[in-house]
Amino acid sequence: MKQQNTDYFDTILIIDDDMVNRKILAKIFSDTYGIREAANGSAGLSEVLTDRQRFCAILLDVVMPGMSGIEVLRHLKKMKILEEIPVFLITAEYQDEIEKEAYQLGVMDVILKPVVPYMVRRRVESIIELFSTRKSLHDVVQAQKSELLEQADRINQLNRGMIEAMATAIEFRNGESGSHVNRIYTITKFMLENTEFGEGISQEEIDNISLAAIMHDVGKISVPDMILTKPGKLTAEEYEVMKLHTIQGEVLLEKISQLRENSVYKYACDIARHHHERWDGNGYPDHLAGDQISPWAQVVSLADVYDALSSKRVYKDAFTRSKVLEMIWAGECGVFNPHLLDNFFEVEKHISEIYEAVG
Asked: Full-prediction pTM beyond 0.70?
């Protein structure tokens, strides 16, 4: 007898209460496959559950004391093992009802005793080859899928890096450290993931919105330095020029062809244009009011105000946390959605902790 292989998916399990029948079947396949035997249904089921990845086929007797072959099949079906391992029913006599149920459960073939060795071998090996090929294809597909996901992740990381670099460059030009965009990202993501305001927005959308929030001020690249970095209060004319960064931000993003193919794009354009809109319609540039303003633009708008008040800028010192909250609540920086404010104040303590960690 050939020494049994120990490789994966190489062994045939024979479940039969008759030792002679087991030896006959074993002899047919033992020169090519490893063989395991079980003298009853329970023992056979235990073998499968213990080492299911080992078996390339199961030869299963119908009539056995205790658990019958059909009962074993029912268990295998329930555990979805029949999708992985082909099962052949071995029976001494034809019984229409048993054969019908066996095929309905998912048995691959019904073989009558006494077995004809060359016929049994051919029928069993054909199915084993089919399952083996299917498994190999599945493994190849899974490997390719994994590789594609890794490539997509690398591309996403590269895209995010480019987005962060562009936004940070603008912050540096604005006299900021660059941490502003990271804080806006963090606050936006936290609000959408941890408050009712984010309900109904999927995790994928939240990830895209948070990344888009980084680009909210990208339009400031069009603002002259004398206005962008002015240490004092802007004149009315200068303020009108500054306000144009919302429109210019959308225009700039529209010109980046690679970004248009990214799922972040629609959120980025909306946020860039509308993060200075206010609930009462007194924002800019389009004077949107209420629910005309998208939820993501509303969240980024509040995050932007919170960060601006909490940070030192060229034209002001940072306010204390209590003063920041007082100013937001009093509407000194514009009117926000009351529901958004409720959600914000519920989690602001956590945001302040995250805020300090981000720096």
From this structure: no
